[in-house]
DNA sequence: CCACAGGCCTGCAGGC
DNA sequence: TGCCTGCAGGCCTGTG
């Protein structure tokens, strides 16, 4: 259930292995994940070198030496693990309680930095993840990427740009922040955490943070600061490890220990001086955690 | 059996 | 009629 911090942590773990490495063999152990693999998918990758491993929103983007891009989304339960052999990979996965029935893709790699080669294994029990190959120059026009919103990182998430996108919208702040065409990379955990930090109710109308002249209100400036901060803090902690997510080297993220509201229903609000109790509500089918006392 | 889980696409209904 | 918006449902498997 990787959100941006988990995907970024995976990227940092995989980059030293993938960058400069060649796909010697790509093994698809089933014909589909969320979508069927396109015909020739594995063969199209074999023999190609990874130039760089990047990220956009919750997508991992492996740029290939011929200009194409392997785009990978982890869905709700996707994870990668790295090993120098099949046996080591399986032992590692086993230790993490992973079921090898859900090992769906195996990349066999070689490279100057990989004496003896390496294997990168993709495991995804729920199969909401997917991999696609985008031909050179096609990324910006691709329907999955063309409408992605602002990255929630310093310098990219501009309050007035966000105000322009929220103006007039009656939908809840919770739903707006989950909308990947507005801000790209937030998910259910970090929306709750950011709104708690900002002291804003998840039920508030998104457009209520925009001034009449169309610019960002003080509250919206504060919210953008809190979004950037919570994402940066989570990346620094290696993301959050709950049920499925582990880092590429098998270690756990630590940010789950820093949650202020997420999954803390009925617990005391942790804001100094606030005597509220954390509540859970369901918005557009997803749990929201918030303090009704200090989030208005 | 039920509810719920970190994502996101589709289709439908309602408002203008 | 169209366009936009917002929401329920569905995709899968696993866990409590």
CATH superfamily of the largest domain: MutM-like, N-terminal
**Backbone shape:** globular
Across the major sheet, the strand order is 1-6-7-5
* Ends apart, CA distance between termini: 28 Å
CATH topology tier name of the largest domain: N-terminal domain of MutM-like DNA repair proteins
Model description:
This protein has 296 residues and is α+β, with helices and mostly antiparallel strands. It has two domains: 4-143, Alpha-Beta Barrel (N-terminal domain of MutM-like DNA repair proteins), CATH 3.20.190; 159-290, Helicase, Ruva Protein, domain 3, CATH 1.10.8.50. It is built from eight helices and ten strands. The protein has helices at 4-18, 41-45, 86-95, 143-146, 159-166, 173-178, 188-198, 218-236, and strands spanning 22-28, 50-56, 59-64, 69-73, 79-83, 103-111, 114-123, 130-134, 279-283, 286-290. The chain has a four-stranded antiparallel sheet, with helices on both faces. It starts with a helix and ends in a 6-residue tail after the last strand. The mean pLDDT is 92. The chain binds a DNA duplex (16 and 16 nucleotides) through α7.
């Amino acid at each position: 259930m990787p959100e941006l911090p988990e995907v970024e942590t995976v990227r940092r773990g995989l980059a030293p292995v993938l960058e400069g490495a060649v796909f010697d063999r790509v093994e698809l152990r089933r014909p589909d994940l969320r979508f069927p693999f396109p015909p020739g998918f594995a063969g199209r990758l074999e023999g190609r070198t990874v130039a760089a491993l990047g990220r956009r929103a919750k997508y991992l983007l492996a740029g290939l030496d011929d200009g194409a891009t392997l785009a990978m989304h982890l869905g709700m339960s996707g994870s990668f693990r790295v090993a120098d052999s099949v046996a080591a990979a399986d032992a590692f996965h086993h230790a993490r309680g992973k079921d090898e029935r859900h090992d769906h893709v195996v990349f066999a790699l070689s490279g100057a930095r990989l004496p003896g080669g390496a294997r990168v294994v993709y495991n995804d029990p729920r199969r909401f993840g997917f991999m696609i190959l985008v031909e050179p120059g096609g990324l910006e026009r691709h329907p999955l990427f063309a409408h992605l919103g602002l990255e929630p990182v310093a310098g990219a998430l501009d309050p007035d740009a966000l105000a322009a996108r929220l103006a007039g919208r009656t939908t809840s702040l919770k739903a707006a922040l989950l909308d990947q065409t507005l801000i790209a990379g937030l998910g259910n955990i970090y929306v709750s955490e950011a709104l708690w930090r900002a002291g804003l109710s998840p039920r508030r109308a998104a457009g209520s943070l925009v001034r009449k002249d169309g610019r960002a209100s003080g509250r919206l400036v504060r919210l953008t600061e809190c979004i950037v901060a919570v994402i940066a803090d989570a990346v620094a902690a290696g993301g959050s490890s709950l049920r499925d997510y582990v880092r590429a080297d098998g270690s756990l993220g630590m940010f789950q220990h820093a949650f202020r509201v997420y999954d803390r229903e009925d617990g005391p609000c942790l804001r100094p001086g606030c005597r509220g109790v954390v509540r859970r509500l369901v918005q557009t089918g997803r749990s929201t955690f918030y303090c009704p006392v200090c989030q208005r």
